[in-house]
Fold this protein.
Amino acid sequence: MDLMEQLEKIFSEAQEAVASTGSVAELEQAKARFLGKAGSLTELLKGLGKLSAQERPRAGAAINQAKSRVEALVQSRRDAIVARELDAKLAGEAIDVTLPGRRQGAGGLHPIARVQERVEKLFATMGFSVADGPEIENDFYNFTALRVFPNHPSRSMQDTFYVAGSELVLRTHTSPVQIRYMEAHEPPVRIICPGRVYRVDHDATHSPMFHQVEGLWVDEGISLADLKGTLAQFLRAFFERDDIAIRFRPSYFPFVEPGVEVDMAWPRNESTKPDSPREGGETRYLEIGGAGVVHPDVLRNVKIDPGKYSGFAFGIGLDRLAMLKYGVDDLRLFFENDLKFLGQFR
Ligand code: PHE
């Protein structure tokens, strides 16, 4: 094989080798096979010395030309590889500006918190301020000051969570706040006490923790009529309808005399809420809380003269109000923290 044939063969080997490389590193290896220290073209150059002075220039020129052709091959392959790698990198880091943005979810108030806020606002328009107290109470404020004596059966109506080895209980109602408030303030007293309360109870309409709003108005000449008027006005404003009727049923609570259960009715034949009190076209009454005229002994317990002052008190379930307002038929939904449920109230 003469030199020219040899160079053609090497060049076509180089073409094949270079074309099959996929990375710069592979390309360097391929290049070395031809142009490296022991590369085939380098070897040929080394052999020039054996040629005659006559042959040498032509052969040298031919080999050098082959060398530059291979170098050019390598260079263009290198450019191609680098361009491809850059394209891949850019594609990998590309931002698809047509994708919808990621939303920052806006939080919202829990439905019970919204109801509580609304209740506070509505009572404020009637001159009630908001009073607060501890959720871990002692026996005196939660029970005894309210005439729920240690062995009285009415304690079992509110069986609660006792803190072992102490006089402490998780409050069963917010009435203890009323006691604390009356201890610290002279009449007239006009407050509501919203907050969490605890009882050993658990089903679709009772949960071991729930929310109450209790109200208290103590002044000269306050009667059951004031109670009824206040509650009716509140409920009409809360549910935004004028045709809400309320009914008092005689009942017993140790801290009031007389005591009543407060029932609320929706008008006949009209309902949009699943839990609304319509059954076969008849009005159904729903119990929403208890109330009554504050027992004289409770006033005495907080050094208020029952000869001069009287008052009413009521306690309503905030969760019940929320169930009615939003048409929720299972109380437990409020406390499962399922965002699909809670998100509907924003
Ligand atoms: N404290 C009572 C309860 O939680 C409710 C109530 C308040 C009843 C005021 C009468 C008067 O059961």
